[in-house]
Amino acid sequence: MHIPEMDRILLDESEIQAKVGELAAAVSRDYRGKEVRLIAVLKGAVIFMADLARRLEVPVSFDFMAVSSYGHSTQSSGVVRILKDLDESIEGRHVLIVEDIVDTGLTLRYLLDLLEGRRPASLRVCALLDKVGGRKVAVPIHYRGFEIPNQFVVGYGLDYMERYRNVPFLFIMKPEAQAAGKPAV
Ligand code: IMP
Q: Per the confidence metrics, is the pTM higher than 0.85?
């Protein structure tokens, strides 16, 4: 696929898949004998969740949430708008939030507080990408894939104006495209 806005590849498909395997092994080990409810935040985490889930060796079920998108004007306040809530109760369940990327941490902080209030048996986070340099609030990441620089990345579920989610690798945008595509915060 020709991607005119691409500057360079950050993580190729084999690096990502190897990491997903490592994360799945750690999750499978920690949850042995338990059933896990995987919760993905739409839409970016869908590809990661699909790959991770297929490599888990414990029984899993899926649920999804949608929240207001990156760069929304409410972001700085940490208030996240729920566009779609979970279908099922998580009370008494072992819940693993599957995130594509943690940047400021505001989305995840909000989700953790919200879901903790619903009394799951346990609540953990698995995030493929961690932009540590972007953090505004502290969040626990129990299973972390890669630490990445504070640049806009696209592919493997992450979009540039809704495009390129299906690209199997992660790439960095050209600076001019980054400026054009970045929502005004
Ligand atoms: P946070 O609340 O700032 O941690 O943002 C988390 C959400 O912002 C992610 O789930 C993504 O949807 C989006 N996001 C943050 N950084 C990037 C990026 O580099 N590319 C695409 N989406 C991003």
A: yes
